[in-house]
Amino acid sequence: MATYKYYQPEYVKNFQCDGQKCSAFCCKNNWRIVIDKKTYKKYSHLKPKSAAKEIMRNLKKIDNSEDYQIKLDENFNCPFLTEDNLCYIQKNHGEEFLSKTCATYPRRTLYFEDFYERSLSLTCPLVAEMVLLENEPLKFENIEVDEKTHSNFGLINIYRSELSEGFFDYLISIQKAEIAILQERTLTIDQRLLMLGLYYDKLDELINIHRNYEWEKSNSIYNGTEFGRDKYAQNVLSKERTDELEKAIAIYTNSEFLQTQAAQFSPVIKFNVENYIKIMLGLLEELYGNTFQLNEDRKLLEAVISTLKLQADSNAQVKIGEVAENYTALKAEREKFLQRFSTVFENYLVHEIFFNVYPFRFVNSMNYNFEIFAVIYKMLELLTFSSFMQKENYSEQDLILEIRFYANRIDHNPNYLKKISDFIQGQKDVVEFMQSTLQL
User: Which site among 86, 97, 245, 277 is 20 to 30 Å from 377 CA-CA?
Assistant: First the structure.
């Protein structure tokens, strides 16, 4: 029997979908549930014909696509959801009749020529608790998967990477160094981000990105993200620099080196609170200024407004200096918040860096990837800290709920991430960016 090489977090093997435990979260809440063409054909040939009709009447064609989607009921829930929070189709026809979307969520599998990487989405309540509440550093493993598990009745969704073939040997090693940096618990979260930025800057020196502009659909490195992919993008590692890359990976997995470098560079990166406020308020304006907001969006935005005491003057302008002073006055509360939930944020960062294959998520420099990764986190930090300041008895469950919502916006809303990406285009200098975001 054929086997397949996988690299994945250990928590993946412990995950079991159970709609009764999470109240079938992914079958509710106005989620778009896609039915691929192959599954649609299976439904149309079901026997007896009445069974086929029962399913087909709840499907509709997606414009400009070969796929279909499920027509949600008046409560924006999947019509195939039973009273016991199980799937009507699976109960009556078997797991092999699930669509790729339903059969694979919350799993994501990426293909790297001779191995696969698999992870889970934090938008799933069971995954979020399992990952974010882990007190020990998240662990990863190399395993071999059999054909049945790998193919999942032929329903596996595999996103193919556009990294060049000769580069795959180094990808896992690069990721191990990223994870080691983010799990260095002798450092603060911002110090870890500083070291990650320095690591990415070193990678930028060693790895060149070649692009072909003949056909460029997006700026995403692999298929399956919000932007599609850049078909001709390649990461090229010059042969004479492979030794340097291996050395860089080795030193950035060394705890003593990370502590020494953080102590050396922290005084150099002097936090500019006014620039930080400009970036955060600019992002808030981009994300929420002219767009429809869900209730969760409104709650988080209102928490920021209250916490930072945002008030516009007679010219509808916010005085950055005053807001910066308000934020600075909250230093002790912020440190208390980050210390209390440091492992949750660590697990979030480790998960996201692996789930989205940073620093190769976007076909651009490693520094650009760092800036997007860091600013996504810093926005999450500000939103959740503001919520913490406005709510009595703020708990881990409150934080996890907000992280899940935020992950849903980042990973499932193309406009949300695109606005962040476009905003970061204006941040040219990585050192200035660090000084505007990291508090060391």
Answer: 245
For residue range 30-61, what is the model confidence (pLDDT) as tens digits? 677 788 788 888 888 888 888 888 888 888 88
Determine the length of the chain. Answer: 440
- Taking residues 79-108, report their average pLDDT: 79
Rounded CA separation 121/386 (Å) = 25
Q: Is the dihedral of CA 157, 162, 167, 172 positive or negative?
A: negative
Can you tell me the distance from the alpha carbon of 209 to that of 235, in angstroms, rounded to the nearest whole number? 5
Tell me the Ramachandran region of residue 113: left when phi exceeds 0, alpha when psi lies from -120 to 50, beta otherwise: left
For 317-329, the pLDDT digits (tens) are 778 989 999 999 9
Q: Which of 327, 308, 296, 298 is nearest to 403 (CA)?
A: 296
- CA dist 99 and 256 (Å) reads 49
Mean pLDDT of the residues in the chain? 82
Residue 69 backbone zone (phi > 0: left; psi -120 to 50: alpha; other: beta):
beta
What pLDDT, on the 0 to 100 scale, is given for residue 290? Answer: 62
Q: Where does residue 228 fall: left (phi above 0), alpha (psi -120 to 50 degrees), or beta otherwise?
A: left
